[in-house]
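Lab notes, practical 5.
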Amino acid sequence: MVDRRAFFQQLLGNSRRLIASVHPLGFVHISLNVFVADLPEGLDYRLHLWPDRTRRIDELGGLHDHAWTLKSCVLLGGLADVTYHAHPSQDGEFNVRQVIYGQKNMFSDGGRAELVEVKRRTITAGQVYTVPARVIHQTEAVRTPAITLLVTEKDDHDKGPLVYSTAIAASGTAVRETLAAPEFDELLLRFEALL
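Output from the prediction step:
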């Protein structure tokens, strides 16, 4: 198990080297790649912080897939993760949006689909879970505050993730909000005090 307190002390001591942004799915995202020497192409190390359950999710909602496989260890709190299978259908309940990453993210129309639940699980502190690339899922912090440490490995193509939404005219988050240094430090201190 990760020495959580020592880990957070390292983050605090290096916070000016890190970028923290508010993710469209309601958590704070921190890239940890600056700590990894000779990082292999396609691998990313991240930390996700859910301070509480009041953070807003993007108007497109939380159903999505990834262009990478993720392996996540819950360090604090608990998550609920539900996976789905999509069936393309012109009368489907969900609008499908392809994320096109850039300086400003854009979203293209991916048609419509119906979703069928495949698996539901709860992951608590000390447990690790994996979501393969292109598997549709929705993750929610059910015990907050929550912290997850992730390793992601990009798949073979450059297409961004798909988002499945019941919103008709939703446009999605084009630019993520970056946390200012004082706000980021205060957030890290709050989390460190819980460990």
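Observations recorded by the TA: Residues 4-194 form a domain with the Jelly Rolls fold (CATH 2.60.120.10). The chain has a mean pLDDT of 90.
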